[in-house]
Amino acid sequence: MKRFLLLPLLLPALSAQDKPDFSKMKADQIFDQLCSSCHGKDLSAGVGGSLVDGEWKHGSSDDELMKSIKEGNAQLGMTPFKTVLDDRQIRSLVIFIREKEKQAKERGVEFPKPEPGKVTKTQHEDYKIEMVVEDGLKNPWAIAFLPDGRKLVTEKAGRLRIIEADGKLNPEPVKGIPTIIDHGQGGLMEVATHPDYEKNGWIYLGFADGKREGREVKTITAYVRGKLKDGQWSDQEWIWKADPKFYGGAGVHFGTRIVFDKGYIYFPVGERGGWHDAQDVENAKGKIYRLHDDGRVPEDNPKFEGKTPVPGLWSYGHRNPQGLDMDPRDGSLWDTEHGPRGGDELNLILPGHNYGWPVITYGMNYDGTPITGKTAEEGMDQPVTYWQPSIAACGLSFYRGDKFPKWKNDLFAGALAQQEIRRLRLVDHKVVEQEVVLKNIGRVRDVTDAPDGFIYVILNGPDRVIRLVPSE
Ligand code: HEC
Q1: How do beta strands 126-133 and 464-470 pair?
Q2: CB of 66 closer than 6 A to ligand 1?
Q3: What's the fold here for domain 119-470?
Q4: Regarding predicted confidence, which is higher, 106 or 83?
Q5: Where are any strands of DSSP class E within 259-332?
Q6: Pocket test for ligand 1, best of 39, 41, 65, 87 (most atoms within 8 A of CB)
Q7: Per-residue pLDDT tens over the stretch 408-458
Q8: Ligand 1: distance of its center to the CA of 69 in Å?
Q9: Do the domains 119-470 and 3-106 match in fold?
Q10: DSSP assignment of 346-383, as one string?
């Protein structure tokens, strides 16, 4: 009853003519002005109660939180905000609350920092980390394994490096690789060997292709294949290259990973900061592609009535996919992509499907202003899971090896910002378990299972290659 009295006190203030312009405000500012009086500046106390203790009386889903904020609760004294705030602003408040909820939950909880030799215990398997390359790499991005025990590592600035079979990093980069533009988030990114490498010797690269002339830069992600002969790159063939009109100056969202399956190659091209380009099937950006592994366009790729999709298009509505792998159990294709703040996604990739960016997203702009109030729309696929706050998802790999039998077929997702690797167990295309298995030893750029059965991890800051090995 005491709470009930608060309602009439607050409403006149909001309907006053000089009400602030919320459309220009960031989520934390809106919260400060409209919510902190009842829920506390740090969201943890007040007549409205805590919003960060993980207990939700009126429903814990994002939709239920939106409803609580929109409709209020007259009996309990929660103001309805639907006439004050629009869906976009309410959505940004939900993301903001989720971020604070996670921070509160993790306060004081330390994930033990894995150190070489020390055993880290996780739900199903215990592991130790081993240093593969401690020094000598700058901004490593991806790793591939050759049957003779050598490993290839890309460096973003445009160098392809060899870790020799004895474990030593060859000081000389591979000569003769294509011209690579080191531009913002792009540069030399992916390296992958063909599944029949032993027979055909093909190595594939994904990188920022383009031109730099003075201060003008025009780039987009491109893919080639070539062979390694006496430390030289040779026999190069283009696999995928965009029409020149799609090259652009933005330094963001290149995407880039490679997956092979049954004579096909799958790879993404990020939306390069051109948000709505992701929705246009005739535009090269914000897409996942499928080609024959020699670059030919398959006849049975998705068709779009009245439109000429960009050659090779497999799925669209993507923002910045930097994780891609195929489930060894059923051949289903999965990506992780960086969303905006609060909108990182794990998606099941199906031919011709639209993954919604930027029409739907669970995220908001990095500065806390809203993007959209919509998280779902007819004809657009939902993520199988999403991360709020964002983890900055990068690198994705199913575990096919036999060194960690209890992790068999689990999915490992790396994260840059959260500096972690998450293990996800998928059953019937749903996430039934999710666990952080490694944290706090650097930004995770790539995680991949290897032919030796260990899990290799590329770290940025410090720039290293490590691997997870069983504790025994
Ligand atoms: C006048 C005081 C007041 C203001 C202002 C207020 N709230 Fe509340 N809020 C409450 C009360 C009281 C409840 C109900 C608490 C309960 O059930 O015990 C509540 C409940 C909620 C809930 C549901 C909590 C649950 O456990 O399910 C959410 C979410 C919420 N508020 C968010 C907000 C946001 C966001 C704002 C600002 C836009 C806001 N509130 C402003 C008083 C307020």
Answers
A1: antiparallel
A2: no
A3: Neuraminidase (2.120.10)
A4: 83
A5: 259-261, 264-269, 287-292, 313-316, 320-326
A6: 39
A7: 999 999 999 999 999 999 999 999 999 999 999 999 999 999 999 999 999
A8: 7
A9: no
A10: EEEE-TT-B--TTTS-S-B-TTS--S-S-S--TTSPPP
Q: Convert the pLDDT of each residue in 34-67 to its tens digit.
A: 999 999 999 999 999 999 999 999 999 999 999 9
- Residue 438: in which H helix or E strand, if any? strand 430-439
C-beta 4 within 6 A of ligand 1: no
The minimum-distance atom of ligand 1 relative to the CA of 55 is 26
Q: In angstroms, what is the span from residue 29 Cα to ligand 1's centroid?
A: 16
Q: In what order do the strands lie in the sheet with 344-349?
A: 320-326, 333-338, 344-349, 385-387
* One-letter amino acid for residue 338 of the chain: H
Cβ–ligand 1 contact at 81 (below 6 Å): yes
Query: Ligand 1 atom 34: the closest Cα is on which residue?
Result: 35
Helices (H) and strands (E) in the chain, counts: 6, 24
Residues marked as catalytic: 253
The torsion defined by the Cα of 316, 319, 323 and 324, in degrees rounded to 10, comes to 0
Residue whose CB lies within 8 A of the most ligand 1 atoms, among 41, 68, 78, for a mutation test: 78
The chain-wide mean pLDDT, for the chain, equals 94
Q: How far, in Å, CA of 411 to CA of 400, rounded?
A: 10
- Contacts of residue 406, defined as CB under 8 A and 6 or more positions apart, other chains included, come to 124, 125
Distance 368 CA to ligand 1 centre (A): 20
Among 3.40.50.1820, 1.20.1530.20, 1.20.120.450, 1.10.760.10, name the CATH number for the domain at 3-106. Answer: 1.10.760.10
Q: Are 318 and 288 in contact (CB under 8 A)?
A: yes
Determine if ligand 1 sits within 6 Å of the CB of residue 93. yes
Distance CA 386, CA 345 (A): 4
Residue extents of the structural domains in the chain: 3-106, 119-470
- Quote the tokens at residue 430: 């749903």
**Is 58 touching ligand 1 by the criterion CB < 6 Å?**
yes
